[in-house]
Each structure stands twice: as structure tokens, then as C-alpha cells.
Write a structure and sequence with these properties.
The protein is α+β, with helices and mostly antiparallel strands and 512 residues long. 55% of the residues lie in helices and 14% in strands. The strands form 2 sheets. Strands 1, 2, 5, 6, 7, 8 and 9 form a 7-stranded antiparallel β-sheet that branches. A two-stranded antiparallel ribbon has the order 3-4. The longest helix is centred in the middle third of the chain and has 48 residues, at 294-341.
């Protein structure tokens, strides 16, 4: 039987009502002429129209849930949305890789400058010794501070980079040296007595570049109160320009490095730890001039970013239209069930009309559009928010690639895996929550029991060197040096035995 001839249970009330009307009107047959329409004809026509509307609604909903291939066979509609998503994935990935390479140069420049400042301003600094870099004598504290002041004053003569002092109103900004200490206190460990005022006092002085006397000679009124001292903080600002971007046809950025050197004495254990950090601020250079193929490259990059923005806007519009269409179909289906069947549609059925993949693509489009706009502003040096742009582009690209799973579900074998993951997802979340509770409890226990006695030093400095490794490290011969090859006629064991036998004979002869 064809679909047109089938009667569903949802259409039975209409037919039953039609039959009851026909039975109630049998006594009216004689009152009408044969050429007139009977009174139930209009009602029957109305039921047929309702049936056609139901079939139309059913087809609309079924078409909405079809995949692109089924829609193509049903109405001949080409899968423009699928093709657009594939193109979008390709161009967004290219954009992300390009921006990632540029951002990598920024991060490298920051890290290398931090390493440079450690070697410039920290006395006797060795790479990897930041955790053990400390002083233990009062004279050493003064010497290390004097060393920083001296190197800061002679920056132009010692640095191999393009570092400069910060200027404000044609004046170099000074170095700030501040000491935090308890306001008052008397400490007598021998008598096991002390009296301390816990209020912290900060005392600072300013040291201008090019004028670099020793601390105790140039500032005799500034004294370090070692018994009450909490920390000594030295702060200054240096400026630099990242010229390596010129090789990649990008405008260089101007950097402000706020260098912070801290002598930490909070433990008052006789060991003052020294640490160097820097806060980086990237600014647009005020006056610049670059010749070569720079302008053309930037224009092409901006055009490519504009193409991505247009593509994402188109994808956003198509997905939003699909979401709105799904909501409209949901309202139509809810109204049909309420009127014709007298029941409300369950929430699970309503959610079926809201395709989560569309919302994922919409969010990714919004993030990519914002990230692309920020990238254009970075390329044109209106902004320098590399980290914020990385967040938008990175999350947007991640969501775009995750959205590909939706189209993988159109294949039977992949769809089985996706359905399995969907069914197992709630249980997986419950397992993760239980496992996280156990892990966190173990972390707290391990932290309080083992934490104070464990340095993680092994991970930072490598495995401890054994005596065997020290013995082997003296040999610097490479494997291809030829020194490890044996004589072809006699092996190592035979050679060693013969040499030992000869030495034994020589010893016997000498004794005789």
C-alpha cells in the first residue's frame, strides 16, 4: 500500500469523527436533492486537507534531518554548506599556522631577552642555576647589588642587542631599589627571645643610568637591615625592537621590558634567594620605515584574513538559518501534537530539533571572526595583543575541526563509533569525577607528607650522575672514530689473554 493510502493512528480521530458525523446525518438523506452536495462533504474535504498538511509537515521534518547526500537525492540541492565547511577548515588552518609562526618569533624574543638579562645583571650566573642562585654573606649582598647597578649604568658598552633605557620627557627613567623590612624588632636567638613589630616598611631610592656608584659609597644613608629585611627589589625598564620579523616581511614591534630582580629573605634562614623576572609590554613603534616587498606582503595577508572573515560570516548565516528553521519546525510539530493528538511534546523530542553541531560551528565562526579582526589589527600595528588573538584563533580552529565529526557520522562505520561515544559520555564524565576526587585527595596527602622534603630537582637538573657515568664521561671518542674496531685476526678476549701472558713471563724473567 502506498503512503497516500495508509492511515496512521494520529489521523484516526479525524476519520472516526467523520464516520460519526455520517451516521448522525443519515436521516437527512431524503431532504436533499441528488445534485446537491451532502452536509458531510465539506467535513470530509477538511479532513483530507488536514491529512495533506500532516504529510507535508512530516516530509519537511524528515527532510530537515537528512544528510547532505540525501538532500541532494531528494531535491537536487547541492551541499553548499558542506563544501563551505571544508574550504573554511583549509583556509583557517593556513591562517593559524601563519599566525603561529609569527607568534613563535614573539615568544622566542621574550624568552631570549629574559635569558640575556640574567647573564647581564646577575653576577656569576650560569644557565639552569636559577633555583640554587643565592647569597649567604652580607658583603655578597652588597656586591651583587653593586654589580647590577654597574651593569645597568654601562648597558650601552656591554650589550650586543639593541637595548636602550626608557625615556620620559627627554630624561632617562631611573632604576628603583626598594627594601621591605619589619618596622622594628630585637632578636636574640641565644636567649630564645625576640620582639618584632610585624608592620612592613618600604624604603626606596632612585639610581639614574650613567651614574653608578657603589651602594654604600654613593648612598651612605641607605642601609640593609638584614635581621629585619624581608626582600630587596630592584626594578628598571629597558626598551628593544624585534627586528627578526623583517625577514618575514612583517613590521617590527617595540618592546618594553620591566626587569624585576628580587633578593628574597622571607625565610630568614641565612640564604637569600635571587630571582629575575620581566614583564613585557608590546607597543607600536612610533616612527618606522621599511623598504622592500613588505607592503605587498602585508596587503596580501590582510586580504586573506578578509576572505576568512567573509567565509565565516557566510557559514554563520547558513548555520543560523538552519537553527531558526529547526526552531520553526519544532513549533509546528508541537502545535500539531497539541491540537490533533491532545498531548505535549516531551523535552527530548524538542531537543532533537536543536542541532548542537550548528551551535558549535556558530561559536567557532564568531571566535574566528574576532580573531581575524585582531590579527588584521596586529598586522597593521594598530594592536599588539598576540596572546588574546591566539586564544580566539586557537579555540575557533579547534571547534572547526571538531565540527568535522558531524559529517563523519554520515558514514555508517563512523556513525557507530559516534553513537557509542554519545551513549558512553555520561558514564565517562561520572568516572572522571570519581577519579578526580581520588587524585585530588592523593595530591593533598602527598603534598603535605612528601612536599616539604622533595625538591623535583631531579626533573630540572636530570638524573644524578653515578661513578660509572663519571668514569665513562672522560672518553670522548665518537662511535665512528674507528678506535672501537677489533683486530680481524684475533678477538678482544684472545688479545687481552696474550698481553696478560706476556706481562706474566716478563715479570718471571725479571725476578730470575
Amino acid at each position: 500500500m502506498s503512503k497516500a493510502g495508509q492511515v496512521s493512528t494520529r489521523e484516526l480521530p479525524c476519520i472516526i469523527q467523520q464516520g460519526s458525523d455520517m451516521e448522525d446525518s443519515t436521516d437527512l438523506y431524503d431532504s436533499y436533492e441528488t445534485n446537491d452536495s451532502p452536509p458531510w462533504a465539506d467535513h470530509q474535504h477538511q479532513c483530507l486537507e488536514d491529512q495533506n498538511k500532516v504529510e507535508c509537515l512530516r516530509r519537511k521534518i524528515k527532510y530537515y534531518f537528512m544528510n547532505p547526500c540525501e538532500k541532494y537525492h531528494a531535491r537536487g540541492r547541492k551541499p553548499w554548506k558542506l563544501a563551505l565547511q571544508i574550504i573554511k577548515i583549509a583556509i583557517i588552518t593556513i591562517q593559524l599556522v601563519s599566525f603561529g609562526l609569527s607568534n613563535q618569533m614573539v615568544v622566542t624574543f621574550k624568552e631570549e631577552n629574559l635569558m640575556t638579562f640574567k647573564h647581564l645583571f646577575l653576577k656569576d650566573y650560569v644557565d639552569g642555576s636559577m633555583d640554587t642562585y643565592a647569597v649567604y654573606r652580607q658583603d655578597d649582598v652588597y656586591d651583587y647589588i653593586d654589580y647590577i647597578i654597574e651593569k645597568y649604568g654601562h648597558l650601552h658598552n656591554i650589550t650586543v642587542g639593541n637595548h636602550e633605557y626608557e625615556k620620559k620627557d627627554a630624561m632617562f627613567t631611573p632604576m628603583s631599589l626598594c627594601q621591605d623590612f619589619y618596622q622594628n624588632g630585637t632578636i636574640y636567638p641565644s636567649d630564645e627571645t625576640f620582639e618584632i613589630d610585624a608592620q612592613v616598611v618600604t624604603e626606596c631610592l632612585e639610581i639614574y643610568p650613567m651614574y653608578n656608584p657603589k651602594l654604600r659609597e654613593g648612598y651612605p644613608h641607605f642601609e640593609l637591615y638584614f635581621k629585619r629585611m624581608i626582600s630587596v627589589t630592584i626594578t628598571f625598564v629597558l626598551k628593544a625592537i624585534n627586528l627578526q620579523t623583517v625577514r618575514h616581511r612583517e613590521l617590527p614591534d617595540c618592546y618594553d621590558f620591566t626587569v624585576i630582580i628580587t633578593f628574597d629573605n622571607q625565610a630568614h634562614s641565612g640564604r637569600i634567594k635571587i630571582n629575575l623576572e620581566n614583564d613585557v609590554d608590546i607597543n607600536e613603534c612610533r616612527d618606522w620605515k621599511v623598504t622592500g616587498a613588505y607592503a605587498r606582503n602585508v596587503n596580501l595577508t590582510v586580504l586573506f584574513d578578509c576572505l576568512i572573515i567573509i567565509t565565516c560570516i557566510t557559514s554563520f548565516a547558513l548555520c543560523t538559518r538552519s537553527v531558526i528553521k529547526g526552531i520553526q519546525l519544532q513549533f509546528e510539530y508541537t502545535l500539531y501534537c497539541r491540537r490533533n493528538c491532545g498531548k505535549e511534546v516531551p523535552l527530548s523530542d524538542k531537543v532533537e530539533f536543536l542541532n548542537g553541531w550548528y551551535f558549535l560551528i556558530i561559536i567557532s565562526d564568531m571566535l574566528t571572526i574576532i580573531g581575524s579582526i585582531l590579527k588584521i589589527e596586529i598586522q597593521t600595528k594598530v594592536l599588539t595583543s598576540y596572546d588574546i588573538c591566539s586564544i580566539f584563533l586557537g579555540i575557533g580552529t579547534m571547534f572547526v575541526w571538531i565540527g568535522v565529526i558531524r559529517y563523519m557520522g554520515y558514514f555508517r562505520k563512523y556513525n557507530i563509533l559516534i553513537l557509542t561515544l554519545r551513549a558512553a559520555f555520561p558514564n565517562v564524565i561520572r568516572f572522571i569525577c570519581c577519579a578526580a576526587i581520588i587524585y585530588i585527595s592523593y595530591c593533598f596527602c602527598g603534598w603535605i607528607v612528601l612536599g616539604p622534603y622533595h625538591e623535583k630537582q631531579q626533573q630540572q637538573s636530570g638524573l644524578p650522575t653515578s661513578e660509572l657515568q663519571k668514569f665513562l664521561s672522560v672518553c670522548q671518542d665518537l662511535p665512528n672514530s674507528g678506535l672501537y674496531r677489533l683486530d680481524e685476526k684475533k678477538g678482544c678476549f684472545l688479545d687481552c689473554f696474550i698481553n696478560r701472558f706476556r706481562r706474566h713471563e716478563e715479570s718471571l724473567t725479571s725476578e730470575a
